[in-house]
Amino acid sequence: MSLNKALAQVVRGVRISKGLSQEDLSTVDRSYLGRIEGGRAQVTVEVLNRIAVLLGVEVGLLVILATSVLEEEPSQVTIRRIDSQLSQLDQGGPYSSIAEMLKAKRPPTGRDRKANAAENLATAQRMRSQGASLAEIARALGLAKSTVHAYLKQDAL
Questions:
Q1: Would you state the pLDDT for residue 56?
Q2: Of 19, 63, 87, 133, which residue is least crowded by CB atoms under 10 Å?
Q3: Domain spans, the chain
Q4: Can you list the residues of the chain whose pLDDT is less than 70?
Q5: Which pLDDT score is estimated for 40?
Q6: Is 153 exposed, middle or buried (0-12, 13-18, 19+ CB in 10 A)?
Q7: How close are the terminal C-alpha atoms of the chain, in Å?
Q8: What pLDDT is recorded for position 112?
Q9: How far is 22 from 102, CA to CA, in rounded Å?
Q10: pTM of this prediction?
Q11: Closest CA relative to residue 14, chosen from 44, 58, 70
């Protein structure tokens, strides 16, 4: 079974258990909701959140229940596994990283800044002033030509 099919069963099951019709979930197009409940649509997190709000449950609950269906296990087993993973994450300290990203003025790119970026910039500038090509600089620094180009463009600004 796919995650879409598991999520379809959960959304439909919760909707029916709450005594709601597809029309009651008015902020989601009825034909789209039908495709979701049929497991024939890719659901974005935004749409899943709207559905959860209309169903009066947390979006995470829908995901947990879908995971339980997918793994063919009771929801309590899934919850215990997630709780264990949360405990491990808590020990690893990602919450401070998440807080730092939220405080940042711009969203993170997904890659850590390299500690030697300033050094690479200086080397790229020096080599360029000596007439080296982008390819030569990239090879010397072990970087992509596009990265070297970005360094040199940054210098021009």
A1: 94
A2: 19
A3: 3-90, 117-156
A4: 92-96, 104-115, 154-157
A5: 92
A6: exposed
A7: 53
A8: 55
A9: 36
A10: 0.61
A11: 58
Contact 44, 7 (CB under 8 A): no
pLDDT score at 24: 87
Q: What is the pLDDT of residue 115?
A: 62
Sign of CA dihedral 26, 27, 31, 33: negative
Cβ atoms of 69 and 6 within 8 Å: the answer is yes
Superfamily of domain 3-90: lambda repressor-like DNA-binding domains (1.10.260.40)
Tokens 């789209």, located at residue: 32
Structure tokens at 47: 């749409």
The rounded distance, in Å, linking the Cα atoms of 144 and 111 is 15
The phi and psi torsions of 155 (rounded to 5 degrees) equal -65, -35
Q: According to the model, what pLDDT value does residue 7 have?
A: 94
User: Quick one: pLDDT at residue 119?
Assistant: 85
Instruction: Give exposure, 62-75, as e/b (b: 16+ Cβ within 10 Å).
Output: bbbbbbbbbeeeee
Residues in the chain: 157
Backbone angles phi, psi at 67, to 5 degrees: -65, -40
